[in-house]
Amino acid sequence: MPDAYCRWCGTALDVHPDLVCRRELDPPRFCPECGRRLRVKVHTAGYEAACRDHGPLPD
Amino acid sequence: MPDVPVTLTPKALVEIRERLTPQAARTAIRAAGVALLDEHRQLTLAELAELADVPDSAVPTLASLAHEVRLEWCGDTVEVEGILSAKTGGCPEDCHFCSQSAKFESPVQAMPFLDTADVLAAARETAALGATEFCIVLAIRGPDERTMDRICELVPLVQQEVGLNVAVSAGIVTEAQAKRLAEVGVHRYNHNLETAESFFENVVTTHTWAERFDTCQLVRDQGMELCCGVLLGMGESVDQRIELIGQLRALEPAEVPLNFLNPRPGTPFAGLPLTEPLEAIRWISLFRLGLPSVILRYAGGREVTLRELQALGLTSGINALIVGNYLTTLGRSPEEDLQMLSDLQMPIGALSKAI
Fold it and tell me: Does A30 contact chain B (CB < 8 Å)?
């Protein structure tokens, strides 16, 4: 399923300007399905991001 | 590197300074070399201020001296550390650079204290990369009783189970708290000055620079190593950076992590430009020349600030780095950093401040 919301700024993609604002050195911060802020755990060799409603973010 | 830059290489907020002539720069750098390498004495702040004004063309020469000074005063070993945000966001303080303040609309969701299993897993991951130091970081003003209990449970556990030196960063502490942290085996306590006293009110309004300074002193008084970092690129002047070096000297930290502002969305400093790479090398060099015996660690912002020049920092005075990810942002791959150290033929090991 294509993303409905930008993972980095949380804006709905149908009104998001141009491309999603991906930053390679930032983990995703918003759920691509509902646009809510993700619970993100960052550790030395990786990170986990999960939405309260939609679960862990697939890679 | 960002796929889509937030801003298109904005011109940095560099103040217009009169630079030394190339000849005057050579003379000043030579004199600094005599002081630091032959006489084995610290530079005065006036001597440092003069070096701050060498022309861009002399920055590699300045960096070369800083490298020699680092080798002479600290050796060639590089200390590798991993850090973990064990309690993220929701911080009551308003440090204008930070995405974890509850005062700003930041994309960073507040998270409670991580489970012991998560902390241990992160420590093991850090150890597997050859690191010797692991810092548990909490986004808080200072620890309450419950937080102190959690820290005091985790520190010996990580030490015993994983065999790493454990550092802690938990904000402003009281004398009794500092004593307790020392007793449970905290190797280093991190508390940054961030910036010069004269610039601090532009960065934080919820606590004072003096409160930070006091905590740093308590840490030292209790016999823990002090890790006291700085953040460059918030609009402070050259004179204020020199002032900051003087203030660090007064605290005699074992370690100084050198951060460069990575402007965070939603924070008051979101719109500030990145420090230019050559300017970053100039200041890495000056921090080494000003603090010859300190463990000078590459910390946040180095990837976006220095880009392809990251290896150059290691030959400009840096002798430690944070490997892998930071608190809320990601680092470049640990393999790239380990390859860089191997290519530079710099061994990895634990450091403590030379006397």
Answer: yes
Please answer yes or no on whether B83 and A44 come within 8 Å at the CB atom.
Answer: yes
**Closest CA of chain B from A41, distance in Å:** 8
DSSP state of B264: P
Q: Could you say which of B4, B111, B330 has the minimum Cβ distance to residue A41? A: B111
> What ipTM does the predicted assembly reach?
0.93
Render pLDDT for B219-242 as a digit per residue (tens, 0 to 9): 999 999 999 999 999 999 999 999
Q: Which of A10-14, A34-38, B54-58, B215-219 has the lowest mean pLDDT?
A: A10-14
Q: Which has the minimum average pLDDT: A17-31, B99-113, B233-247, B296-310?
A: A17-31
Closest CA to B177 of B151, B155, B140, B148: B148
SS3 state of residue B287: helix
| Count of Cβ atoms closer than 10 Å to residue B146 Cβ | 9
**Which residue in the set A19, A27, A39 is minimally distant from B330, CB to CB?**
A27
CB B110 within 8 A of CB B88: yes
Inspect the interface and report whether the beta carbons of A41 and B114 lie closer than 8 Å: yes
| A25 CB within 8 Å of a chain B CB | yes
